[in-house]
Amino acid sequence: MAGSTFGTIFKITTWGESHGKALGVIIDGCPAGLSLCEEDIQVYLDRRKPGQSSISTPRKESDQVEILSGVFEGRTTGTPISLLIRNTSQKSSDYSEIASYYRPGHADYTFDAKYGFRDYTGGGRSSARETAGRVAAGAIALKLLKELGITVTAYTRSIGPVSADLEHFDRNAIYSTATCMPDSDADSRATAYLKECMMKKDSSGGVIECITTGLPAGIGDPVFEKLDANLAKAIMSIGAVKAVEIGDGIQVSTAVGSENNDTFYYDDGSVSKRTNHAGGILGGISDGSELILRAHIKPTPSIFSPQETINKNGENITVEIKGRHDPVIVPRAVVVVEAMTALTLLDACMLNMTARVDYMKEFYHNV
Amino acid sequence: MAGSTFGTIFKITTWGESHGKALGVIIDGCPAGLSLCEEDIQVYLDRRKPGQSSISTPRKESDQVEILSGVFEGRTTGTPISLLIRNTSQKSSDYSEIASYYRPGHADYTFDAKYGFRDYTGGGRSSARETAGRVAAGAIALKLLKELGITVTAYTRSIGPVSADLEHFDRNAIYSTATCMPDSDADSRATAYLKECMMKKDSSGGVIECITTGLPAGIGDPVFEKLDANLAKAIMSIGAVKAVEIGDGIQVSTAVGSENNDTFYYDDGSVSKRTNHAGGILGGISDGSELILRAHIKPTPSIFSPQETINKNGENITVEIKGRHDPVIVPRAVVVVEAMTALTLLDACMLNMTARVDYMKEFYHNV
Amino acid sequence: MAGSTFGTIFKITTWGESHGKALGVIIDGCPAGLSLCEEDIQVYLDRRKPGQSSISTPRKESDQVEILSGVFEGRTTGTPISLLIRNTSQKSSDYSEIASYYRPGHADYTFDAKYGFRDYTGGGRSSARETAGRVAAGAIALKLLKELGITVTAYTRSIGPVSADLEHFDRNAIYSTATCMPDSDADSRATAYLKECMMKKDSSGGVIECITTGLPAGIGDPVFEKLDANLAKAIMSIGAVKAVEIGDGIQVSTAVGSENNDTFYYDDGSVSKRTNHAGGILGGISDGSELILRAHIKPTPSIFSPQETINKNGENITVEIKGRHDPVIVPRAVVVVEAMTALTLLDACMLNMTARVDYMKEFYHNV
Amino acid sequence: MAGSTFGTIFKITTWGESHGKALGVIIDGCPAGLSLCEEDIQVYLDRRKPGQSSISTPRKESDQVEILSGVFEGRTTGTPISLLIRNTSQKSSDYSEIASYYRPGHADYTFDAKYGFRDYTGGGRSSARETAGRVAAGAIALKLLKELGITVTAYTRSIGPVSADLEHFDRNAIYSTATCMPDSDADSRATAYLKECMMKKDSSGGVIECITTGLPAGIGDPVFEKLDANLAKAIMSIGAVKAVEIGDGIQVSTAVGSENNDTFYYDDGSVSKRTNHAGGILGGISDGSELILRAHIKPTPSIFSPQETINKNGENITVEIKGRHDPVIVPRAVVVVEAMTALTLLDACMLNMTARVDYMKEFYHNV
Lengths: 367, 367, 367, 367
Hints:
By secondary structure, chain A is an alpha+beta fold. Helix content of chain A is 29%, strand content 22%. Chain A has nine helices and 18 strands. The first copy, chain A, has helices at 38-48, 108-115, 131-147, 171-176, 184-199, 227-236, 257-260, 330-352, 357-366, and strands spanning 5-6, 11-16, 22-28, 65-67, 71-72, 75-76, 81-86, 151-159, 162-163, 206-213, 241-246, 264-267, 270-273, 281-282, 285-286, 291-297, 307-310, 316-319. In chain A, a hairpin with a 2-residue loop joins β8 (151-159) and β9. In chain A, α1 (38-48) packs across α3, α1 crosses α8 and α6 (227-236) packs antiparallel against α8. The longest helix of chain A is centred in the C-terminal third of the chain and has 23 residues, at 330-352. Chain A is globular. Chain A starts with a strand and ends with a helix. Chains in contact: A-B, A-C, A-D, B-C, B-D, C-D. The interface between C and D is large, with 114 and 115 residues. β11 of chain A pairs antiparallel with β12 of chain B.
């Protein structure tokens, strides 16, 4: 089935395999008139690319983006924006061996079960490289949201047992540390933990948190298109995510109502809340507070210690995965979470513009 | 925006407010030839209805379903099935007071922010009564899945601090206990805890778990339409859910790869896994194991102790919510989780039928 | 498959069989704040109902509409509007005979081929009664368009060989004549022709034309969601329509460019066209002129003269259709064309509100 | 809005401007296992490209297609297929002049009205070059349909006053004549007519007909997703199409029922029809007969004689369009009609596979 399209009005379609000729994304439904150049997108892709630190695979992927359509004289035209990233660092030979067996924790077996065969080079379509297209599209969504006064910021909340201390939140650290934590001290401890994992030929999971500020109240829809429902889908669609939390998340199940309810009050005439257990969403609609979500990411399934598994000949075998793999997925997925959040919010903001007859009347009486 | 439709092929549209004339659901895309009568649906609605125990609101909602279309001589015809539930127990007067203020933890404020006004009687469209339509549609999905050998079972995993002990899983207890726990002993302790909450004019959260057996490998799609992504959306779209976990869920973030990877092996010729940390999904596609998910439900926001909030006149006020409210949402939401899971899985099973050219050739050469 | 939903933002879902308990429609995505009562809808349903003239079936269908949800204190709330029409005049016995054979020109055979069986009473889901839901939803779209200054008017352009003379266009005649022609003289001649058809136990086709005024330039989208493409789908989805024309329609194929191009000019500062061969659409986007379309409707397939056909036992047979059938479909379909046009245009107007970044900035800086 | 995606399961997204860097299409939802190479697609693109005859623009567009993803070892993998066509023959200077004014019969004015500005080079996104992506995707749909025994053939039915004589239908002539008529004699007369048009600095319209054989009964859905409704949208979405007919099309409006009804009979045990006025569709569902449709194409709006129009400075002006333009759109649009028909039918065939519970049971009991 067609599973590579996301969004209702601001609609993106990603394509491409890890080791194919190229990968990319089509953004359809981007409003006309947004100033846009390749550099606007490249800065986000650069945050995703590997080979940037001692805790990242030394594999190089330049991920250079090219705008092929939808931008004229520096501005979006309202027609589809096609973004292309040529693959340059594929070594298909690294993967010839895995054609015959199913790596634990990977999608090898399920792809074969579904399609009868698979592009096994570098994980094919199930590779994390697929997210390059999401990040490129997300860069545009983030730019447009900024024009509306909305800022989306994701960062590493924890890696294995090491959590960032948000009391000393340091925004710059997100972009300068290898772990993308907003806390240099936690970054050091997490890096030490990851090196330990690497020595043990093992890998680590972690948590990404994402905060959105400036989102007005009223965004999102009741019932199936709740803002949190669409965010949950967006985030869970990122490979390796196994849980999504909104606001207090899992803690609500052990809380009592008198604690968990957020008290409304008027703060100099405007509606405010004394706490934000809800994470900025009530009944699927934004309440004007910070929007808070978290993604729990599993440890990299490609580990270098021997593992039991099966091959296509019906044999139980033991394998040792080779190649170049990150000991943790989290830091490179931070910008993906940011991108998916932005795409979801922008689409909801667009849909919200027709929520009232008065909005339509004002618009069409002014056209 | 249109937010009341769910699904791609097996598509449902719910409608109706808590205290309106009626509510219901249209199921479009149900295959022809399924034996169906009102009783098939009623049994599920009866699991959702209130007033059934000491820990439930004494409010009565008979929730009697009527099939208005799409069934002819006892079988579905392939055309839309319209299900109607007349509202009978509305006491709009109970709610007249809340028209003027915003209840903490409810969607009152966000609805007004979005639409400019709201149907405030009984929560209007944001009431949990909306889920009656989902359950009615889910009953049909569950019946169809059963024909394919797929069984979906949800139950209460925990209420506040009290967890069911799955070592002594008792399926019957799900349907006979007030808490819908598969463990009578835990049910007793949870009931005691809830009574304590009620005495304190407070409420409790909890966790619902859902297990699917018989789902073949290969269901779901890569990228945005991952099976877990669609399940996350489906479950998060249920009011009061604040976190969704698949398989080990939040535990993966502190796990290491060597533990978290599930080992494949051949079990008498067929593919099996020694563990199921993944919860039955790899790369967004089912792997043939049990599918496991959990929903974290917040405490009922309607509590009877005094709460600070705001009214529409710009005043900070203190309110005491009246009416008939459950001290915990969890037990009545169990069947809703079951329904949403079934709807998601059935749709994915339908979409999967065109995954291979060979499937199409076999189908059309036999027509 | 789910085929009963139409629209992207203003989304309607119809349901119901000709001789079932009821039929209806859900309108989801209607903006909040539209004043709406049952009478607003009833006037449109009354234009569709049979039994109103000597050239219409004497079959009575009261088609009384009931609003079940989505309206509170006389205004739409932004949530789904459920409209119900109870069936009252079903005589299933009239149809028991046709269960066994396939009426020429009807969907009996194709429904059986698709679904394996069918609800044969009154044509089931393929009955023209299905359009009652469209008309009810269309009434709301028409009311909302009117608030935006847009008026949609359909009428009978011709019946068999008799065409209305648009030089003497009489708007009142559309609503007062049995043929819905805007020309009383043509109405008389068409009525005479239809009576002749009835005497011969035969039926007639005809043409419906629909004119929209007040539609601003810029509505509709390039490529697949062209305004004319969506109108063509909307109109062709009405049973019995076999051709759809926009503007000059079929005449363009024998025209030359110098005639067919419409000349732009400034008329007191605003853009105008000297002719309107294009029917108000260029490149799939409205150009600010009148929008013109035509639907060609086939003769009623239910005729009373003997016809050869087949039954389900593999036999070639001769049948004589009984029951109460209109000698022409056109007059009752006029309001359906109006409804489908309005639904398409309103949805396009809603989608257009996000066409430019500036629109979004203005909206969100004012919220 | 996002208007560049077509299809529900077999979903295509086109992108690219006439004079941008490249254009292309993503095909998402193509079943796995279809043998596919670039040459399979190139043959269809070659039918669309200009510069092939005396009645076509001498403009050269090589339209060389490159497969960037979704194919592995010569077979489709089930993941998105990205097809790229680099633009090579753009002479943007030809168009610099038209930036300031609105060409009659083109989308220049409507694009500006919608988006505030436009890519004016070569018509930008509203250029017929956009259809290259449709043809490339259609090539894949046509190949897959062939595997199911379904053949789609489009040809020029008429150009201006000259019609092909179908009594002497010559399939080869479609591919060998400059007009794509299945009748060499008519081709000669049409060519003469077109040369006359060119001498007069004028252009001609025409009709394309498309016949599908091998389509089983039961394809398509009742109500809004009728097969003819989706075909009407598909065909009307091709620029320059102003009318779409199914079967007898416009002739039904002057026919009587006794002529227009097609008689069913058993032909050696299988269902057949003595006539095919319906064009193979009854109630929106295929009846097993040949599927017949026609598209009426307007004359090329770019003519070389002087035309009155307006510029962006508010002035009425006279312009003479320069550049390289075909005197008739029809021959190059033939393969586009074939492509859009194939895309629509394939999607409907895929959706049909879940029409009955028995189909699902058979499929899942065999997986």
